[in-house]
Write a structure and sequence with these properties.
heterodimer, A: alpha/beta, 5-stranded parallel β-sheet, 17 helices, globular, B: Rossmann fold, 7-stranded antiparallel β-sheet, 16 strands, binds flavin-adenine dinucleotide, binds iron/sulfur cluster, binds FE2/S2 (inorganic) cluster
């Protein structure tokens, strides 16, 4: 019997979608989900699973979909993944499960991500609460940061019966899911729904608490009675280019730009009080997912012309292929092999133009990507009024600065002894972007899961 | 929710709020600030800590009603609450242990000078305080500061109280009278801090200023609060808000503060028409 083609993901029309922040990818309906699930071969040795950082039982949950038993599919998913509606949307499946799927060598792997999203959404809509009848333990664990790493670790520990408090600096939990990834890619209602689920496991979330300022890690252990701490504060410190003119009015870090729009809802200004200023012409510097999100957000805020400026070529762009394609459909203009050297301003101190130098690719560097180098005398300018710098983020220094005996690397990442996230300090564990540098949602979740295991072992050994 | 336990009208458009926030109060130190958000659609705004009481678990802030959020805050009464209140943020002041220190506060900037004067006097430092405002009715904390300080001077633009003129005039006079001053702390409008620095720099009197940059998170994750210090970009929220005045690029600060002037005006206009509409419906 010939295999059916992969079901495509229905998308909003580009011309319509740049007019608002509604979700672009619409998701499968039941018919599509069933048709796609039918394509899965239910392999004896499912290769897909080796590509999944949290080891979701992929053929098993897909089999449950085939039977129309979506509740069962959800509970299989949730066994390994606390945030399926989120992962189904933002995981780079093309590099993970779908890359290893046996059908991938014919070019059409099972759409595992789309199916995960279908089940995740179904389950959220049902609003079901987990059963919390398990044993309750006395030990208390503090989780610092409520991004995917922290939420996952907290949920797993709560399931094991520990008393877990998550401390979050912002006024809303979710980390990058809430402040970074835009509504049109990951609706905040979905994130809130997934967080409600984590809370329903018994996890307490304490907002507006900046660890390192409001309370320190040492105080959590010594004065507040926590038996272990998991640090998952992400990589939130924005890097700048350090070129002249970078502090002119109209230059944002991607973090500021996206936080204003996503977390503070500046796109609903003035109903929401936080302002954002976007001119007609915007340049976004960088080639990752963050740059794509910033560019597409700028289009939705009314910018007529949006450039992506990236110093290497398309092949080296770290953004997902899918995200690059979406940005292109929305009219974003890619200026590749170009690097900013200065930003020029008006007399009043507003951005007027960005000066770039053309680049060419030389020998490969440590990352294996060909190293870009400037072409002498090739400077040119683009007239823009807003510039968004999206060249990466590092870990925030507040916790390392305020915690005794916590070892960090030269770039500020917390040093862990093994993949379970043990740090140089007793009873303190770390995982997610704060350890690895900016990575992915699912890798952060994987780190949170492994740390929950390690914390469980630690607490059992000591108490 | 963080309850307002006391509200005082200090001057036209300047209000004091004592807010219940035990975790913040426990760690607060002079020179630090908090970020608050009034309600679910509100903006996060930074305000310098004007006082704190660890036993009562309260933190005092003083807000001048200049924008949408400070007006929104101004309408709250004791018993009401703000939705979010985060802190203490920024570095505590590094205060000298001895000598003579002149503390200068301008306008609403007088409020954050108060905990510094208090801390300095507790250390036994000789404190000369100079406060200034447009006119007598805009002066705040004068009673408390006069009581605490070894010497206390007032300047008003219109001469309605104290000397007629600016705080810089008083500072200049002290220096011309050969008073020895070891350190100056100036908090107020950027223009004032810049003018104070113009006087202290040539005399090489070390000077600290507190920068009220635009902020979003207050924890180093957005860079909205960028300031140029000695030619290098720093984040006011984690490296400051207090800096060595000789190293600050004040003109850049002034310019960056005007970033959102247009949308802010729009929000205010909209808010006013909302209020008007509400009245119209009565
Ligand atoms: C714009 C953008 C788009 C992205 N798109 C994708 C994508 O499509 N797919 C994908 O897989 N990945 C994507 N990523 C990367 C992914 O979001 C991150 O790798 C992931 O969120 C890291 O999780 P985390 O839990 O380690 O940290 P974070 O999500 O960064 O969460 C850290 C949390 O800790 C809090 N915190 C920080 N310091 C303190 C402190 N001192 N005290 C208390 N709390 C603190 C922060 O406020 C935050 O809430 C994207 C990232 C960005 C910025
Ligand atoms: S490898 Fe592909 S076909 Fe095989 S079980 Fe996994 S998803 Fe199904
Ligand atoms: S306020 Fe965001 S980095 Fe300082």
């Amino acid at each position: 019997m010939p295999r059916k083609n992969r079901q495509d993901m229905p998308l909003l029309d580009p011309e319509e979608r740049v007019l608002h922040f509604g979700e672009v990818a619409l998701g499968y309906d039941e018919e599509k989900a069933l048709a796609e699930a039918e394509r899965c071969l239910n392999c004896k040795t499912p290769l897909c699973m080796q590509g999944c950082p949290v080891n979701v039982d992929i053929p098993e949950f897909i089999a449950a979909i085939k039977e129309g038993n979506y509740d069962e599919a959800a509970s299989i998913l949730r066994r390994k993944n606390n945030l399926p509606a989120i992962c189904g949307r933002v995981c780079p499946q093309e590099n993970q499960c779908e890359k290893f799927c046996v059908l991938a060598n014919k070019g059409e792997p099972v759409a595992i991500g789309a199916l995960e999203r279908f089940v995740g959404d179904y389950h959220l809509a049902r609003g079901e609460k987990p059963d919390r009848t398990g044993e309750r333990k006395d030990q208390r664990v503090a989780v610092v940061g409520s991004g995917p790493a922290g939420l996952t670790c907290a949920a797993d520990l709560a399931r094991m019966g520990y008393q877990v408090t998550v401390f979050e600096a912002f006024h809303k939990p979710g980390g990058v899911l809430m402040y970074g990834i835009p509504e049109f890619r990951l609706p905040k209602k979905i994130v809130e729904g997934e967080i409600e689920y984590v809370k329903s496991l018994g996890v307490e979330i304490r907002l507006n608490t900046v660890v390192g300022k409001t309370v320190t890690v040492d105080e959590l252990l010594e004065e507040h009675g926590y038996d272990a701490v998991f640090i998952s504060t992400g990589a939130g410190l924005p890097y700048f280019l350090n070129i002249p003119g970078e502090n002119l009015n109209g230059v944002y870090s991607a973090n500021e730009f996206l936080t204003r729009v996503n977390l503070m809802k500046a796109y609903k200004f003035p109903e929401h009080a936080t302002p954002i200023m976007v001119g007609d012409k915007v340049a976004v510097v960088g080639g990752g997912n963050v740059a794509m999100d910033a560019a597409r957000t700028a289009r939705r805020l009314g910018a007529q012309k949006v450039y992506i400026i990236y110093r290497r070529s398309r092949e080296e762009m770290p953004a997902r292929k899918e995200e690059i394609a979406r940005a292109e459909e929305e009219g974003v203009d890619f200026r590749l092999l170009a690097n900013p050297v200065a930003i020029h301003g008006t007399e009043e101190g507003w951005v007027k133009e960005i000066e770039l130098v053309k680049m060419e690719l030389g020998e490969p560097d440590e990352s294996g990507r060909r190293r870009p180098k400037p072409v002498p005398g090739s400077n040119f300018t683009l007239e823009v009024d807003t510039i968004i710098i999206a060249i990466g983020q590092g870990p925030n220094p507040l916790i390392p600065r305020s915690t005794n005996e916590l070892q960090v690397t030269e770039r500020g990442h917390i040093v862990v002894e093994d993949e379970k996230g043990r740090t140089s300090k007793k009873a303190v564990f770390a995982g997610g972007d704060v350890v690895t540098g900016a990575a992915t949602v699912i890798e952060a979740m994987g780190a949170g899961k492994r740390a929950a295991q390690a914390i469980d072992e630690f607490l059992k050994a000591y108490f | 929710m963080y309850e307002i336990v006391r509200k005082e009208k200090l001057a036209p458009g300047i209000k004091l709020f004592e807010i219940k926030a035990p975790w913040v109060a426990r760690k607060a130190a002079p020179g630090q600030f908090i970020i608050l958000r009034v309600d679910e659609t509100g903006e996060r705004i930074p305000l310098t800590i004007a006082d704190f009481n660890r036993d009562k678990g309260t933190v005092t802030i003083v807000a001048q009603e200049v924008g949408y959020t400070t007006k929104q805050l101004g309408r709250l009464e004791p018993g009401d609450a703000v939705l979010d209140f985060t802190g203490p943020l920024g570095q505590p002041s590094e205060l000298p242990d001895s000598g003579t220190v002149t503390c200068i506060g301008g306008g609403v900037g007088i409020a954050p000078v108060y905990p510094q004067v208090k801390a300095l006097r507790e250390k036994g430092v000789y404190v000369i305080t100079i406060v200034g405002a447009r006119s007598a009715e805009y002066l705040i904390f004068t009673g408390e500061l006069e009581e605490l300080s070894n010497e206390f001077y007032i300047a008003t633009d219109d001469g309605s109280r104290g000397c007629k003129g600016f705080v810089t005039g008083v500072l200049q006079e002290l220096l011309e009278a050969d008073r020895s001053i070891d350190h100056v702390i100036a908090i107020g409008p950027v223009i004032m801090m810049k003018a104070v620095t113009a006087i202290t720099r040539p005399r090489n009197i070390s000077t600290t200023v507190s920068l009220n940059s635009l902020m979003v998170d207050g924890t180093g994750m957005c860079g909205a609060c960028r300031v140029t210090i000695d030619g290098e970009t720093k984040f006011a929220c984690i490296n400051g808000p207090e800096f060595d005045a000789f190293k600050v690029d004040f003109d850049e600060q002034l310019r960056r503060l005007s970033f959102y002037r247009d949308p802010e005006a729009k929000a205010m206009a909209k808010a006013e028409c909302r209020i008007r509409n509400a009245k119209g419906a009565e």
